[in-house]
Amino acid sequence: MADRYLGMLGLAEALGVSRHAVHKWRARHPAGSEHAFPEPDIDLDGAPGWRPWRLSEISAWRASLPGRGVGGGRPTLARQEYLREAYHRGFDREEALRALAVFAADFPEMSEPELCAWIVSKWR
């Protein structure tokens, strides 16, 4: 039987975040840093993989991140504007945030405020 691993997308889905969030965590907290993201168990052609049982370790790592705390704090002005515009177009909050996560995964080079501003500009 083949070993199973969680890739970036599988890990993101299990944690309830976007793939881009996992990518940012790995970039911001590399091996050797003070709060290093847990190293993958395997690297296959440049794609990292973690054993499913390590999800609790990664969840604990995430919970111990310094900074904004539970709930993420107040949304940025760009996110507030994006959510307001999305509401006017018939999206509820969850739908708008899912759409934002899809765009974030498709455009990882853009920060969330840049992405929100770009989407709002397309709607206007």
Please sum up the structure shown:
This protein has 6 helices and 2 strands. It has 124 residues and is mostly helical. α1 crosses α2 and α4 packs parallel to α6.
Could you explain how this protein is built, in words?
The chain is mainly alpha-helical. Strands 1-2 form a two-stranded antiparallel ribbon. A hairpin with a 2-residue loop joins strand 1 and strand 2 (47-49). The protein has 6 helices and 2 strands, in the order H-H-E-E-H-H-H-H. The chain has helices at 8-15, 19-28, 55-63, 77-88, 93-106, 112-123, and strands at 42-44, 47-49. It starts with 7 loop residues before the first helix and ends with a helix. Helix content is 52%, strand content 5%.
Notable traits:
124 residues, mainly alpha, two-stranded antiparallel ribbon, 52% helix, elongated
H and E order: HHEEHHHH
What gross morphology would you assign? elongated
Arrangement of strands in the largest sheet: 1-2
Question: What's the Cα radius of gyration?
Answer: 16 Å
* Oligomeric state of the chains present here: single chain
The portion of residues assigned to helices is 40-55%
Q: Which band does the percent of strand residues land in?
A: under 5%
Number of helices: 6
Q: Let me know the average pLDDT.
A: 87
Structural class: mainly alpha
List how many beta strands DSSP finds: 2
Query: Which residues form runs of ≥5 with pLDDT under 50?
Result: none
Query: Alpha-carbon distance between the termini?
Result: 53 Å
- Largest sheet at a glance? 2 strands, antiparallel
